[in-house]
Amino acid sequence: MRWLLWGLCIAGLAGCNPAVPGDVQEQDESDPVSGTTEGDATLPLDISGIRFTERTPGPVMVVLETELPTEADVQVYVDGYLVKEEAIPRSCQVLPAVTVCEDSVFRKVPVMIERSGEMNVEVVAMKGDRWRSESFSQTITLASCQSNQATYESELQPILRGSCERCHGNGNAGVFTADDTWPQFRTSLINRGDAFYRYPSGQDPGHDAHPFSPYDATYRLMAEMLWRAEGDFSCS
Ligand code: HEC
């Protein structure tokens, strides 16, 4: 199967370039944020920017671009609620005769926002008896909410057609087709979960194509649809 697909790719190279619909990509810019610091400013902690698709018609994935201290416990709060907690491990590189350890790592931290309005984010790092927090507020403007089915048909299905259909849906790779109705695709999303954005972005090894890259606009859109499917979201 894999060799057949590679054969098809070599036969028509143009067809192997990932097709990413331009209108989604154009909005894929990082906004710088300036935060407020509390605690020990010698701990390396920073939120440098956020990335999300403006005027998304419903729940939107907001990606925080952060620098976090190694060997620290990190918590992320959105509007006062703890949404993520992670222990950041040591990050060392073994070179001849010397081991170099970083005191911070760069991480993209995704959070989901369901409503327009002001979003307050606080990231807290604790390392030994030291702590530091960074916080910022930003207004997120969503378009008026669209049903899961309408969002699937207007936003995601064109991407399935452009980036997945040549393998999925023409008899080569199974799993789903670009012609699936929302109830069909919703079932696939629920059964395969984050494979839908981790496979096409190369975060999981072994998939034949990488039309997405981690946290880009198409990746976020797929994650937003999975969020809708898993949470049985409906516009209120
Ligand atoms: C170059 C061909 C190719 C392209 C393009 C492609 N895929 Fe795949 N994909 C495959 C093959 C082959 C498999 C393995 C088929 C199987 O499991 O039967 C697969 C498997 C998958 C799986 C199943 C993983 C699991 O749980 O087993 C998912 C989900 C998936 N692809 C999503 C996508 C999405 C979404 C796109 C478009 C953004 C895409 N693929 C584009 C070839 C492709």
Question: What key attributes describe this structure?
Answer:
236 residues; alpha+beta; Immunoglobulin-like; 2 domains; 5-stranded antiparallel sheet; 4-stranded antiparallel sheet; disordered N terminus; binds heme C
Quaternary status of these chains?
single chain
- Total DSSP E strands: 11
Cα distance spanning the termini: 45 Å
The CATH architecture classification of the largest domain is: Sandwich
Present as ligands are:
heme C
**Sheet bearing the most strands, described?**
5 strands, antiparallel
What is the domain total for the residues?
Answer: 2
Query: What is the name of the CATH class of the largest domain?
Result: Mainly Beta
Q: Strand-residue fraction?
A: 25-35%
Count, helices: 6
State the secondary-structure class. alpha+beta
Instruction: Tell me the helix content.
Output: 25-40%
Radius of gyration: 20 Å
Question: Could you describe the 3D structure shown?
Answer:
- This is Cytochrome c domain-containing protein.
- Keywords: Signal.
- The chain is an alpha+beta fold.
- The chain has 2 domains: 116 residues, Immunoglobulin-like (Sandwich); 85 residues, no CATH class.
- 25% of the residues lie in helices and 33% in strands.
- The protein has 6 helices and 11 strands.
- The strands form 3 sheets. Strands 2-11-10-5-6 form a 5-stranded antiparallel β-sheet, with no helix packed on it. The chain has a 4-stranded antiparallel β-sheet with strand order 1-3-4-9. Strands 7-8 form a two-stranded antiparallel sheet.
- Strand 10 and strand 11 form a beta hairpin.
- Helix 3 crosses helix 6 and helix 4 packs across helix 6.
- The longest helix has 16 residues.
- The N and C termini lie far apart (45 Å).
- 26% of the residues are buried.
- The N terminus is likely disordered.
- Bound molecules: heme C (HEC).
